[in-house]
Amino acid sequence: MKIRIFRAHLFPAPSAHFEKFSCSICLDLLKDPVTTSCGHSYCMRCIKTHWDGETGKRTYSCPQCRKNFKPRPVLEKNVLLAELVEELKKTRLQAAAAAADRCYQRIQDRQKDMKLLQQDLEAINASADEAMEDNEKMFTQMIHLIQKRHSDVKQQIKSEKETEVSRVKELQEKLEQEIRDLKRKDAELKQFSDTPDHNQFLHSYPSVSTLSESTHSSIIDIQPESRDESLKYSRVWNRKVTVMGREQRYPDHPDRFTERWQVLSKESLTGRCYWEVEWRGSGVVVAVAYKNICKKADLHNCGFGQNDKSWSLRCDTNSYKFFYNNTTTNVSGPQSSRIGVYLDHRAGILSFYGVSKTITLLHRFRLRIFSHFKPCFCIFPSRYLISCFSCVFVLLYLSLNIYISLKTRF
């Protein structure tokens, strides 16, 4: 509600007429007006009182213009001026009565406005009290629901926490036990790998692989896509190739060697691995290579040991040679028809052993490992047999066949 505000004037402002008929000493309308010779008018009582105060000076002055009189003037009532003042008083009383009537009427109007304002105030207070009560009820219900939800969520979190903590503790205990077993196993492997008696190492090595959960065993298949056109692939267990007298026709594949009688295994090697290759004939190349070794390059660049992506040991009937990055290293050692290969992927160690009644370290090489390795072989154009296994006996089948069995240990 808008409140109207009026500016009330109970009495009109003094007019110029009132100022003309006012005494300059008492500032009120003239009473018994007298006029001095200088033309200024005063109340008779006011001018007498003023001059009485100047008796000691023997001169008397006009309060307005300061004109001096000597001797003291004799004052007489100005009858005309007195009549005019009386008329002015009557006019003033009439104006005051009219102003009083207007003031009373405005008071009545303001009282009506005040009554309306009071009604509005009471309505506002009632509405506010009602809204406050409704909000109080609503917030009380909301607080109750929030507290209940808070209690439910706390209980749910507590229950989930207990479940997860129990699960994590159980898993932690299993992992701690596995870590202890792996540390024990790693210590045994280091002890065996550092022994100069390689025969003892190879016979003891399977005994540290009793943890079924931490040991991955697999049969490494020869990758059919990587064989040369002169190699015939047999689908029996995916582990046999044969050198043929004439070239075989196969669909082209980016992983096939085109210049060498070479094959790669399908699986890559990780962790610590050991396998053995038994061969017959004029010779064999036993190697490991990155899986991204070039397959389509010329004869020298794609051969095992002729690049920086493969390491190979060439075994002839009377000598050994180690090849890496087209560099040849003569290797001395007793001739053996069985070659053992040990690869420690994490330590970056590649070792070749001659295996007979005793185990002889032929060559050891430190690798800079950037990717996973694959076992690989190169076949010479003569009749021989290659059998690759890991500390297990494998029957020898037809000549010119390759059988691979490998256990990978972490």
Automatic annotation (TrEMBL):
<dbReference type="Pfam" id="PF13765">
    <property type="entry name" value="PRY"/>
</dbReference>
<keyword id="KW-0812">Transmembrane</keyword>
<keyword id="KW-0479">Metal-binding</keyword>
<dbReference type="InterPro" id="IPR013083">
    <property type="entry name" value="Znf_RING/FYVE/PHD"/>
</dbReference>
<keyword id="KW-0472">Membrane</keyword>
<keyword id="KW-0175">Coiled coil</keyword>
<keyword id="KW-0399">Innate immunity</keyword>
<keyword id="KW-0391">Immunity</keyword>
<feature type="transmembrane region" description="Helical">
    <location>
        <begin position="384"/>
        <end position="404"/>
    </location>
</feature>
<dbReference type="Pfam" id="PF00622">
    <property type="entry name" value="SPRY"/>
</dbReference>
<dbReference type="InterPro" id="IPR003877">
    <property type="entry name" value="SPRY_dom"/>
</dbReference>
<dbReference type="InterPro" id="IPR006574">
    <property type="entry name" value="PRY"/>
</dbReference>
<protein>
    <recommendedName>
        <fullName>Tripartite motif-containing protein 16-like</fullName>
    </recommendedName>
</protein>
<dbReference type="InterPro" id="IPR001870">
    <property type="entry name" value="B30.2/SPRY"/>
</dbReference>
<keyword id="KW-1133">Transmembrane helix</keyword>
<feature type="coiled-coil region">
    <location>
        <begin position="81"/>
        <end position="195"/>
    </location>
</feature>
<dbReference type="GO" id="GO:0045087">
    <property type="term" value="P:innate immune response"/>
</dbReference>
<feature type="domain" description="RING-type">
    <location>
        <begin position="23"/>
        <end position="66"/>
    </location>
</feature>
<dbReference type="InterPro" id="IPR013320">
    <property type="entry name" value="ConA-like_dom_sf"/>
</dbReference>
<dbReference type="GO" id="GO:0005737">
    <property type="term" value="C:cytoplasm"/>
</dbReference>
<dbReference type="Pfam" id="PF15227">
    <property type="entry name" value="zf-C3HC4_4"/>
</dbReference>
<dbReference type="InterPro" id="IPR001841">
    <property type="entry name" value="Znf_RING"/>
</dbReference>
<dbReference type="InterPro" id="IPR017907">
    <property type="entry name" value="Znf_RING_CS"/>
</dbReference>
<dbReference type="InterPro" id="IPR051051">
    <property type="entry name" value="E3_ubiq-ligase_TRIM/RNF"/>
</dbReference>
<feature type="domain" description="B30.2/SPRY">
    <location>
        <begin position="200"/>
        <end position="394"/>
    </location>
</feature>
<dbReference type="InterPro" id="IPR058030">
    <property type="entry name" value="TRIM8/14/16/25/29/45/65_CC"/>
</dbReference>
<dbReference type="GO" id="GO:0008270">
    <property type="term" value="F:zinc ion binding"/>
</dbReference>
<keyword id="KW-0862">Zinc</keyword>
<dbReference type="Pfam" id="PF25600">
    <property type="entry name" value="TRIM_CC"/>
</dbReference>
<keyword id="KW-0863">Zinc-finger</keyword>
<dbReference type="InterPro" id="IPR043136">
    <property type="entry name" value="B30.2/SPRY_sf"/>
</dbReference>
